Amino acid sequence: MDPKYEPIIFKSNRLLQKFLRGKPIFNGSLRTLSPIEIEALALGRNFVPSHNQPASANLQNETSKLINDIDKVIHFAIPRVNFYGNNRRGYLSKESPSLWQPPPREWVRDPDALTLINKITEGQSTQPRKTLDPRLHDALEKLKNDPHIYISPSDKGGCLVLWRRIEYKREALSQLEDSKTYRRINLAELEEHLLHLKFQRNEIAVHLLKNKWITKNEYTSIRRGPNEASPIYFLPKLHKKINDKSRTFHGRPIVSTIHSTLHLLDKYLANITAPLLSEIPGSLRDTTHLLNLLPNWRIPEPANLITIDVNALYPSIPWREGVEATTEFYSIKIDFLISRARRDGHLDPPDPPTFKKILLTILENSIISYQNEAHFHQIKGTAMGACISVFFANCYMWKLTVNIIVNPPSHILLFLRYIDDIIILTTADLNQIMRLLESISNDHITYSQNKLGKSTEFLDVLITINPETGLIETAPFSKPSASPTYLHADSMHPRHLIKSIPFAQLLRLRRNSSDIKHFSQPASKLITRFLARGYKKAHLLRALAATLNLDRNALLTPRPRTSVFTNAFKFIPIFDFHHDWKKLRVHLNNLLLIVIRFYGGTPVGETLAKRDIKLIFRRARNLASLWSPKIKNGTKQTRGQ
After folding, report:
1. Is 385 helix (H, G, I), strand (E, B) or coil?
2. Environment class of 90 (CB within 10 Å of its CB; exposed 0-12, middle 13-18, buried 19+)
3. Is the pLDDT confidence value at 150 over 60?
4. 568-571 and 455-458 as β-strands: parallel, antiparallel, unpaired?
């Protein structure tokens, strides 16, 4: 980096240099980056640049939606004679919005309401805050249009990677040409498969509707859904050795299923089974769950820790055994799901045979497109990117390890698993551990184990048995390849979100530290990183002081997840710096008060009085939107080369 370069967004060359020492950018291409291109990339994938056009159309659309939502509540709050209906929701209500429109209501003609609606629609413009200089914009466009590179996040660690297109393609095809996992199909086979798949999807939708497991609106959405192959792309594994076969990084395959034929059925199963993820014995939900399960008693002297990785779990799961394991666990928990559904006002979940049929249909019909130039049928495992894949993989590993969980060998003091990562606290030697792994291995599943010892890394925690006290201590941990690129403070995000990020990250470090001495050094490094990202020192020190005053035991206490939006009208504009959002929030609240006053003393007014309006922001397009389509779909200049 040129020491004479004067940054545009970063406060100084020194701060930019300090940020770059964390190696947030890996240039694996032949392109020589200019200083301004380095700064543009250093802003990070999630950086949202400001724009100069006020989003009046955005406010108009959201205002129309708000009026429509209020009219719906009014319509169903009006008492009716002989009105009967099933108001239980389906599991795809978010993905299948109703096209029904309520009749317009008189309150919209109220003069005070009309005045506020006009103010909300127009918005209150403020001086725009420019964050992306034209020079940076030009640098990003040049990088985007370079036909010889792809810009991608690394598989782990948050690093931004410039990957030579020719090397990326070599790695992609080396994986896709594995005939044990993928079968190449021509265009005629693709069209035939998609046509047959559409018929299967529609047949399943009819069965679900007939048994009242989905709503009519969901039925329509499923049948009218896209019928396309899913793009596959690969994320570079910088933490692994270079692949000898492709002579470049190993790539983690990710399948984007959102436009696939079976996406809504996939989403349907994932939404139904979401409550079951925390019910799987021996399976961890997150780091907090791990910390709560670690022993707080003195560990016997011969005990050691070891972590174990399942090798390539997702593409290795055999369909038959995976489906049997997943259906078995679903069957065990079906009464739990039915009870929960009726409590929450959902339709009943499908019976186990139907669940099994849908799951098998999804697994057996993963049709993949590589940059629109080659098509494949995945014939083993599950695609990373499929909605149901996490539950499917967890259930398979539960079935494989259930004997250890239910009846652990005497030398096992702790056995926990987070998807494909396992941690064991044991008094056994390495030979006994190897025999244990053999008992949960098969032709498809193998393991890589780390060193047996008094200390090990698992998830984002370093776990150590203190040699003096025999107690377990924990400290924050990140992989050597990790290069966390926190959101830059000048990104066009709401200020409250920007300010909350340092506190949230310090909170994570405090939670993961069993003692203040384990917290201090990582916290100091974190503050240095945030300073380099444009955050104010005073704000960071206040966040640090607030974190130090917290009781760690309280941080480890699970809190029930509640939503403040459950009984609220939602106004969801795209955030920018052109509007006075405080005034808009006041206008929204006053509008609701006018509607409540209009229906005062009636059941409608009482219903509306129990609600409020929440202003929720969507972000504008970030820098990642410049690069993601290119790596998924290729470019016109290079496609087919």
Report:
1. coil
2. buried
3. yes
4. unpaired
